[in-house]
Amino acid sequence: MLLAQMGYTFLYFITEASFNHGMNPHVYVTHRHIVSGIVMLPFAYFLERKERPKLTFSLFLELFLLSFLGLEVLYLQNPRGLAKVFGTLFSLAGVMTMTLYKGPIIRNLWPALIHVEGKSSIHENWLKASTLTVTSCITWSAWYIMQAIKLKGYPAQLSLTTWMSFIGAAQSAVFTVCIEHRRAAWTIEFNIDLWSILYVAVVCSGLIIFIQLLCTEEKGPVFVAMLNPVSTILVAVLAYFVLGERLYTGSIVGAFIFILGPYLLL
């Protein structure tokens, strides 16, 4: 899971570079799912031919809608249950501290090693960004829980990853076609856009999803979700040392608070 979070960390930087280059975010999502499905298909077909359950219509609907949720069992009467609760609260407090509290700025030790073009065109909309981010976290959490439930009846991680990629590509394509009518937006040239799509498709939508499914089956959805904020810390550190972005005291304090969370829970 730590390796998976490292993979997600580079995702943010390469995605930002691609968007600054002019890549349409909706087209980007569609392409990443298509490429991921194509890459994972042969592995899923040949390696899980004997253990892959038959795809019924009801199973397909479950994969399409992702509509069933479960609950993590908590036993507040014993130390293990309390550790889960306090671990979650510590992690939440750490991430919120990194996000909301700045504090004194820390001076950069050296000039930026890599300069990202197009950053001046970024405009801030805190209300919209916060709303979308919270919505993303809620749906992401529901997705983890759905994975844990579905793996009980469909214990074929490669095949499940492939199906999610192709179905996600179809859903994204329909949505994108409705709002993006320029044919040029779908063209991918041999530049940062292509490398970004390949990285996200193979590493993030393919390999990392497969790793998460394995860990979810072995340890449950909370274990997988608990380490997600690790990428927040890694992004802040790399942005400071490599891109020359500002690092605030609040980020360091929040990181230390967050570390207590996974330690207690795991």
Automatic annotation (TrEMBL):
<dbReference type="GO" id="GO:0022857">
    <property type="term" value="F:transmembrane transporter activity"/>
</dbReference>
<keyword id="KW-0472">Membrane</keyword>
<feature type="transmembrane region" description="Helical">
    <location>
        <begin position="192"/>
        <end position="214"/>
    </location>
</feature>
<feature type="transmembrane region" description="Helical">
    <location>
        <begin position="59"/>
        <end position="76"/>
    </location>
</feature>
<feature type="transmembrane region" description="Helical">
    <location>
        <begin position="29"/>
        <end position="47"/>
    </location>
</feature>
<feature type="domain" description="EamA">
    <location>
        <begin position="131"/>
        <end position="265"/>
    </location>
</feature>
<feature type="transmembrane region" description="Helical">
    <location>
        <begin position="247"/>
        <end position="265"/>
    </location>
</feature>
<keyword id="KW-1133">Transmembrane helix</keyword>
<comment type="similarity">
    <text>Belongs to the drug/metabolite transporter (DMT) superfamily. Plant drug/metabolite exporter (P-DME) (TC 2.A.7.4) family.</text>
</comment>
<feature type="transmembrane region" description="Helical">
    <location>
        <begin position="158"/>
        <end position="180"/>
    </location>
</feature>
<dbReference type="InterPro" id="IPR037185">
    <property type="entry name" value="EmrE-like"/>
</dbReference>
<dbReference type="InterPro" id="IPR000620">
    <property type="entry name" value="EamA_dom"/>
</dbReference>
<dbReference type="GO" id="GO:0016020">
    <property type="term" value="C:membrane"/>
</dbReference>
<keyword id="KW-0812">Transmembrane</keyword>
<feature type="transmembrane region" description="Helical">
    <location>
        <begin position="82"/>
        <end position="101"/>
    </location>
</feature>
<feature type="transmembrane region" description="Helical">
    <location>
        <begin position="220"/>
        <end position="242"/>
    </location>
</feature>
<dbReference type="Pfam" id="PF00892">
    <property type="entry name" value="EamA"/>
</dbReference>
<dbReference type="InterPro" id="IPR030184">
    <property type="entry name" value="WAT1-related"/>
</dbReference>
<protein>
    <recommendedName>
        <fullName>WAT1-related protein</fullName>
    </recommendedName>
</protein>
<feature type="transmembrane region" description="Helical">
    <location>
        <begin position="126"/>
        <end position="146"/>
    </location>
</feature>
